[in-house]
C-alpha cells in the first residue's frame, strides 16, 4: 500500500492494516461466512465504528489493497514521462499486479474468494470500477486524443488482462500474449500510437 508521510496518516494506515490483518486471519481460520464484523473488530481491538471508518463493508476487508491497485493503474497513465508509450506502461503495472496476486502466499485468499458468491460479486464490481478510473485517466490525457468509448474499451481490455492472466497456468506468459492483442487494438484506435501510445517495433 502507499506509504503515508504524516504522523496522523501513519497511525491511520497502521490501524487500517491491523483491522485488515485481523479480518483475514479470522476469515482463513474460521471461514468467511462464519465471521461477523463484530468478531473482526474484537480481534483487532477496535470499535465497530472505527472499522467502518476504514472499510465500507465486510467484503472490502478482503480486498484491503483495492484502492492502492486502482491508484497504481491510473498513475501508470498520469505519471508516465512525456511521450512515454502508454501500453507498455500499463503492461508493466499489470505484470506487477499479477505477480503479486499469484504468489503462493495469497493462494488461500483466492480460494476463499472463489468459494464465496458475495466476494466474487464484489471482486467483479471492483474490477469494473478500476476500469472506469483507468478509462477516465486515458481519456483525459491530451497526448492520446481518444474518444471516451475507445478509452473505456482499452481500459476494460487491460483490466481483463489481469483477471485472465491470474487464472492462467503461466500468468506472466498470458500477460504478454494478451498485451500483444491490446497493442494491436491500440494502434488501430489511436493514430498517434507509434509516438505516444505503444512501443515502437
TrEMBL record:
Residues 36-55 bind DNA. The keyword Transcription applies. Gene3D superfamilies: Tetracycline Repressor, domain 2. The keyword Transcription regulation applies. This is TetR family transcriptional regulator. It comes from Streptomyces spiralis. Keywords: DNA-binding, Transcription, Transcription regulation. One of its GO terms (molecular function) is DNA-binding transcription factor activity. Pfam families: TetR_N. Residues 13-73 form the HTH tetR-type domain. The lineage of its organism: Bacteria, Bacillati, Actinomycetota, Actinomycetes, Kitasatosporales. InterPro entries: Homeodomain-like_sf, HTH-type_TetR-like_transc_reg, HTH_TetR.
